[in-house]
Amino acid sequence: MYPWLWVWSPQVHFPWSGNVAQKIEPRTWFNAMIPPVSGDAEIEAQVFNAASYGTQLGLIIDILLDIVKETEDLSPKASASLKELSVLKSKIEDIKKRSGTPSRIN
Asked: Which superkingdom (predicted)?
């Protein structure tokens, strides 16, 4: 066929007629957020279903604040961070109260 006739040739692409070399697997929006190099997406999804990131961080914050109460010698930077963390925790609790989300039992 002459090159100038390509305009009149039909440009029809039937299903499965093109390049189909792709990874076909059921991936949810959560699994798609986890890059393959950072871990196993299936395990991450199971952990997230058991306890969300917010729940996990909330537990860590509670423990950290309790441990720091017993510490007397903090650097000025650590003291400032502790105050910020305490303020952040109280803001989160206020948001939960306004939304009607129950807080964990402390």
From this structure: Bacteria
Burial class (CB in 10 A: 0-12, 13-18, 19+), 96: middle
pLDDT tens, 9-25? 666 666 766 666 666 66
Integer CA distances (angstroms), 13 to 3, 4, 8, 18, 24, in order: 20, 21, 15, 7, 20
What's the rounded Cα separation, in Å, for the pair 74 and 44?
35
Q: 30 CB contacts (<8 Å, ≥6 apart)?
A: 41, 44, 45, 48
Closest CA to 103 of 49, 59, 38: 59
pTM of this prediction exceeds 0.70: no
Rounded to whole angstroms, the Cα distance separating 2 from 60 reads 71
